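Q: My labmate handed me this sequence with no annotations at all. I'd like to see what the chain might look like in three dimensions before we decide whether it's worth expressing. Could you predict it?
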Amino acid sequence: MIFQLQSFDYLTASPSRLMSSAGFWTSLPRLTQSGTARLLMVADTLHAETVRAGFEAVASPLEHLPPGVLAYRNEYDDFLSSMVRDVRYLRLYLVLDGVLSAEQVIGVLGGYGVRAQPLDHAMPRPFAQGRDRWNFVESSTGLWAMLRSKDRQGGVLTPRSLHALLGVDFPVYAALHVYTFPQSRVLRLLREKSALVGTDSGKRLEESAAVQEAAGGILDIRQALSQGLGLHTLRLYVMVGAPDEAALNGRLEIVRSALPLETIRLFGAGETMRKVFSAEPLHEREGFMLTTEGATMLAGSALSYRRRTEVHGVMLGIDRNQAPVILDIFDERNPSYNTVVLGQTGSGKTFAVLLLMLRHLLMGVRLVIVDPQGNVDLSFLGEEVYRRSVLGTEQASINVLDIVHDDIPAQVETAKSMLRLLGVYEASGLDDAVLDEALTGLYRAVWDARTSPLLADLLHRLEALAEDGRGQAVRETAARLAYRLTPFVSGSKAAWFGQPTTMDFGLEHAVNVFDVSRLPSREAGGG
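A: Here is what I predict for the chain of 527 residues:
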């Protein structure tokens, strides 16, 4: 099975994020049939034409746009032309022969801080077919050669070990193959190595340093095992292409210099290329040895090279890597369509949300905007598209008891929720029971006629309960609720909530703005 992974930004992520996948690599013997997994990396250039084509694929056709929206679309096209440039991008994939279902593997990866999703497109490959020569593969896209890491390595790994490789200015296809030893095999291997070190301890003085180094390595592995870590072998494969052999050799040297690992060039590598860059499991156990800390750091250096690759949606701007920030809130791949925008006062949250909404309008999304400050004016879109309603005026009345459900219990609960927002009652104790009785009787009396009652009708019900209710507590509660309801029936708020609804909630326009700035803070949702 194969999954697409989402990378993160090394400079903005917490340090723990880089090592959070350690548990996944340690668990490979339990999660897979062969104890292996392969991280595929495709680093290439994202062209401006690709970004534009991605927007065209999800945008509404020009002939369907009203004049006001069409004018905004033209401005957006100018924005794309001026802002989008060719930039580097990275796509990450994980291949493994898992014993769990795809959904379970995604859940496991998420638990280790790696966001994944099932592959929903063909995995990019450098070529479909080619002819295997001795020192390269010849294809319609050029000549391709492969480097592989040596099975003995020295040096130091850093959190950005692979960043230089992924940042070169030509296409690179890389694969990091990881094999995790079962713990029983690691213990057997340690016993064998310890026995060899003991046998070699009596050799010449010049060999004692090597013996001590081996003993130190055994001790490090034992300490790693005691901490719940494991032992792995890794191999890094890098495939590079060029139009001719001279350019190919030059690019291979650039790749060698960009890597912290020693590599060898593979000859007659056509079959290896096919296996490594496919969805087939690669049951290799050879490679250079690392404990889980080193394996996680090397894999994390690929996961932390964040370059945006999404092109289907609307562009909001560019990030610090000059990559386009493109978003489609209603992408079916998203687990939900909820979005939150966070920022300090004056940082531009309102502008960002309006920008996001207006550009989604170009994809045929209908907008409902609640404006708490009264400063949203989108009249340039035209009356055919835009409608603005101002709440808190005598011309904009809302009857919170309007019938909107097909059964009385659901309608009563909705009415109680609205009255709670108005501050008429609190959903606790006797208040809830008394109001429930009054609303149920009120709706039963008008249900067959489907005529919505008014707050004045509810007030009469509560006043009747206050006079004839069963018990002193019921009468007092009904009287208190009736008193709290009075401002909405005959007081200062009667024009807003005490009459039949005059607001248009049909949402027949593409953009519907409800200005609630004239409402008191509680009615506007301010608490």
